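To whoever picks this up:

The nightly regression suite flagged Na+/H+ antiporter NhaA as changed. Nothing in the input moved, so I suspect the structure step. Input below, exactly as stored in the fixture:
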Amino acid sequence: MATAAALLWANYAGQTYSGFWDTEFGWSRLGLRMDGRHWVNDALMTVFFFVIGLELKHELTQGALAHPRRALVPVIAAVGGAVVPAAIFFAITWGTDAVSGWGVPMATDPAFAVGILALVAPRAPAGLRAMLLAIATVDDVLAVLVIAFGYARGLTWGWLAAAAAAAVRCPPRSARHMCSDWAAWPGSASPSPCS
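Regenerated output under the current build:
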């Protein structure tokens, strides 16, 4: 519903749609005043990927992807889902200025993927949902890495180091629930300012 409403709004009242997303709101005294796009990209998506990460952690430790061979399948699928669209884009745009955008079609939108699955197959097996989450997330991580290292003007290495440190804060012990899930918040939030 939200997607359909946004498409209609953008196509029939494009100026007001753009104006809405360009409007800044928040708390200036706390340094939290941003436009709508940044609130979605830097705030809401952080929460979304944190929740997705918790679901994947559960599936990888005691769910449908707990076996290494089962976990390898979505990783291979995600690599293919990133490489094939990039190769097709590269082949079609070869010799034009647009070829430099080959990294853009690599990304999968996990939010849409999860939403479509919930809409089309609300009673889908848990294994299917876990597989889709893993494919979409790994694919998205690969695309973010390509965009960060291939397209960014510069990386903030301090934030990148903080994200890496947070990611490895609990090695395999997390599989035995030795780490609190809430300790993952720094790792979820820190990649945002890296590029």
